[in-house]
Specification:
The chain is an alpha/beta fold and 785 residues long. It contains 32 helices and 20 strands. Strand 19 (734-738), helix 30 (743-751) and strand 20 form a beta-alpha-beta unit. Helix 6 packs parallel to helix 9 (159-179).
């Protein structure tokens, strides 16, 4: 639909400066259209103006043929024709539509037309008349008077240009006559010129007023057309009318066409029967038709009444509006209204509604639809006193697939998961995707709790089976949190919260299981929330500190460095275990600033040790997602003066699951600084051995569990430790056995070829002061003491 133009006043003020184009009018949009009409009017007279100039120049040349040298006449006539042609073609180049817009600049550029014509024609009184006889001068004056009159008529819409032409040429003639002593003729020419200029202004103003009136009428017509919904040009709107008995009268061709019949067949037919179609005989009507019947019966106006109708066996949707009609005596004589076929609009609205409530990737209901289903389920259950259930599902190891194989494979995997999940749903259940790798199931009737739990187990078993996608065999699983209402929540938000807490508990239990909500989970969640708040200010409040555990060389048993271990002593919670607050820091994205502080504090302490002593710091995989991590390491080394080769960063194999996020590239950049990299907890993670050859690692740390089992002679553990040490040797890497607590364990790992040892057997984590004293004294001396 076109834009409705601004309304115009019925009268428009025409000030002389605005008319001449010296300043903008009060309504720039209106005056822009008026100026376009002015230019168009002169364009239409351009050829007439050109012909007038040419004819007048020929007449002048004929009159002067015997008194002025021919070369002068020819030169002047060439100038006149050139000027006239130039002005004529400039006017013809004007836009050929008067309903456009023209700027003040467009109007002002026409001034040059009047100036040029006035200049070339002023040569007649100024140059030629002084050498002509009185009889010839009279002919020249009459010719110029006719020319001025013609130009005043043709160029009047361009008032400023016309006034310049008339004023300049008229002044030249008056001056020439005055010098010749014919003052009466000069006065008459002056009066004639002023009359022409006045007539020019009046004609220009009349054109402006006429065009302004046309604009008002055009805009009003367009507004009416738009308000009527483009009745004549559109194909979806029609008028309808009934009599006092609600029968159709005077049906139009458009209304009949919309009904799929001819006008004669529906004349005098009850409107409700026409709209009901086949349902008229059975009495089965849409609620919209009942509403229409009620409004007609009560003789009330209505609008936006939408109802389905059957047209040629096809269901269409109509939008009706109408008002009652009364005669001069106030008697009701029927209804008159309009109708529109809105089938396409309704289909589009249904499509938008589906897009808003269904997940585009999987086709399952999305979070909004799941929530609406849950709210309706809870409302229904409240009426008949039943139980309902809500499950939250989180896919296990899906992120590893996404990071290593890419999002396209991850999206296809989500599609397969959705198919399996949907196949498990019966008439009592609805599943949906909440986002990412989170899904949900709404169980409308959970009176049989055992059946609900069996459904959770079937979901876990089904989703945990392998998936074959693009020659990849993918193994994932799912954890399920289950909440039963109304016990676990009387509102949708409370029930979802309870299921989420149960899911969190299922993940803690090792994943691949389901857990029901228990009331104590809320207590644990609250404790976790309070712990998180305390953790956020722990560094600023000085509650965190580092302790240092010695690392010694196997065989010589000489001290070669320390591992920095983070500790948190909270005034509220006391000493908090790292196994408790480190995962919390990773989940809340606090590990970044905490890890940066650890690196700085460890380097500051290592600056007080001998130059051969190394400091090892653990790095979380989440820290490597931030590209500024490299800058943090470089700044810590530069500010403390610790050599890069003295710093060793320990990463777990889980780091390599973040390759898609650039973790390995960041490790390579850290290694380029000269910092050593150590693979912690070797053998317990998911990484491929191929990463060992492609990443610049300098050492492997053998996990405590393998150390204990290898010292006990467990064949599998011995084989794994021996293989790890052999692999490290072949790649030029050192090996560190962590968690060595007895002499038996130490000797066993030394015999297997481990190069460094760490554990309680050689020293427990100690304070910075103790570590500094030990580092400066040397391990051998401390042992002798």
């Amino acid at each position: 639909m076109s834009k409705i133009p601004p309304s115009l006043p019925p009268r428009i003020s025409v000030a002389i400066p605005t008319l001449l184009g010296l300043r903008e009018g009060k309504d720039p949009m209106v005056w822009g259209r008026i100026r376009a009409a002015q230019l168009l009017a002169v364009r239409r007279a351009a050829l007439f103006l050109l012909a007038t100039n040419v004819m007048a120049s020929l007449v002048i040349a004929f009159l002067l043929r015997a008194e002025i040298p021919h070369w002068q006449i020819a030169s002047w006539e060439a100038l006149v024709i050139a000027a006239a042609v130039w002005v004529g073609f400039r006017r013809l180049a004007t836009h050929d539509r008067g309903d456009g817009y023209a700027s003040l600049r467009d109007l002002r550029t026409t001034v040059s037309d009047g100036c040029i014509l006035a200049f070339v024609w002023s040569a007649v009184p100024v140059v030629f008349c002084t050498h002509a006889s009185s009889g010839t001068t009279t002919g020249l004056g009459l010719t110029l008077a006719v020319l001025m009159t013609t130009v005043a008529l043709a160029m009047a819409p361009l008032a400023l240009a016309t006034l310049i032409f008339l004023g300049y040429l008229g002044a030249a003639i008056v001056v020439q006559l005055s010098f010749a002593g014919t003052f009466a003729a000069a006065a008459g020419l002056l009066l004639f010129t002023l009359l022409l200029m006045t007539a020019c202004l009046h004609r220009a103003r009349a054109l402006v007023l006429i065009r302004a009136g046309e604009i008002v009428l055009d805009d009003r017509d367009e507004t009416v057309s738009l308000l009527l919904g483009e009745f004549e040009g559109g194909g979806a709107d029609w008028l309808w009318e009934t009599d006092a008995t609600r029968r159709v009268v005077k049906p139009g061709a458009r209304f009949a066409f919309a009904c799929g019949v001819d006008a004669a067949s529906i004349d005098n037919m009850p409107l409700l029967q026409l709209l009901a179609g086949p349902g008229w005989e059975t009495g089965e009507f849409d609620t919209g038709l009942h509403t229409l019947a009620d409004r007609l019966k009560r003789r009330e106006s209505f609008r936006n009444l939408r109802l389905p109708v059957q047209i040629g066996g096809e269901e269409r949707w109509w939008d009706l509006a109408a008002a009652p009609r009364f005669d001069d005596h106030g008697e009701f004589i029927g209804f008159r209204g309009v109708g529109s076929d809105v089938t396409e609009q309704r289909a589009s609205a249904d499509k938008v509604n589906r897009m808003a409530r269904f997940d585009t990737l999987t086709g399952l209901p999305n979070r909004l639809m799941v929530n609406e289903t849950l709210v309706k389920t809870m409302a229904d259950a409240d009426r008949w006193g039943g139980r309902y259930a809500f499950m939250m599902l989180d896919l296990d190891r899906f992120k590893a697939v996404n990071d290593t194989l890419g999002h396209p494979i991850g999206d296809r995997l989500l599609g397969r998961v959705s198919e399996r999940l949907n196949q498990l749903m019966g008439v009592n259940e609805t599943c949906g995707r909440l986002g990412g790798d989170e899904f949900a199931v709404v169980v409308r009737d959970a009176s049989d709790l055992a059946a609900v739990e069996q459904l959770a187990e079937r979901i876990i078993e089904s989703l945990s089976r392998p998936y074959e996608i693009d020659a990849h065999t993918l193994h994932i699983g799912t954890s399920v949190g289950l909440a039963i209402g109304p016990r676990d929540g009387r509102t949708a938000d409370m029930l979802v919260r309870s299921a989420d807490l149960a899911l969190y508990r299922a993940k803690d239990a090792g994943r691949g299981v389901f857990r029901r909500y228990e009331p104590e989970l809320h207590v644990q969640a609250e404790e976790r929330r309070v712990l998180e708040m305390a953790l956020r200010g722990a560094i600023e409040k000085g509650e965190m500190h580092l302790v240092y555990q010695p690392i010694v060389k196997a065989g010589s048993e000489t001290l070669c460095g320390f591992e920095a271990l983070l500790r948190w002593t909270s005034p509220e919670f006391g000493s908090v275990s790292p196994t408790k607050f480190i995962p919390l820091a990773e989940e809340t994205r606090l590990i970044g600033p905490i890890g940066a502080w650890v690196v700085r504090a460890a380097c500051e302490e290592a600056a007080h040790w001998p130059s051969e002593m190394r400091i090892a710091v653990n790095v979380s995989a989440d820290q490597l997602r931030n590209p500024s991590f490299v800058t943090t390491i470089a700044a810590a080394l530069a500010n403390t003066g610790v050599a890069a080769e003295r710093l060793e960063l320990e990463v777990t194999e889980g780091v390599f699951m973040h390759e898609g996020l650039g973790a390995t590239q960041i490790l390579d950049r850290v290694a380029e600084l000269g910092v050593h990299l150590s693979l912690d907890d070797f053998g317990t993670g998911y990484a491929s051995l191929g990463y060992l050859g492609r990443t610049r690692l300098s050492s492997l740390k053998i996990d405590r569990s393998f150390v204990r089992d290898a010292a006990s002679g467990l064949r599998e553990a011995v084989a794994i430790v021996r293989a790890g040490i052999a692999l490290a040797d072949s790649l030029g890497m050192a090996t560190t056995a962590e968690g060595v607590e007895t002499e038996v364990e130490y000797k066993a790992l030394h015999d297997l070829g481990c190069t460094r040892v760490q554990g309680f057997y050689f020293g427990r984590p100690m304070s910075p002061e103790e570590a500094r004293a030990l580092a400066n004294r040397g391990w051998k001396e401390a042992a002798a003491a």
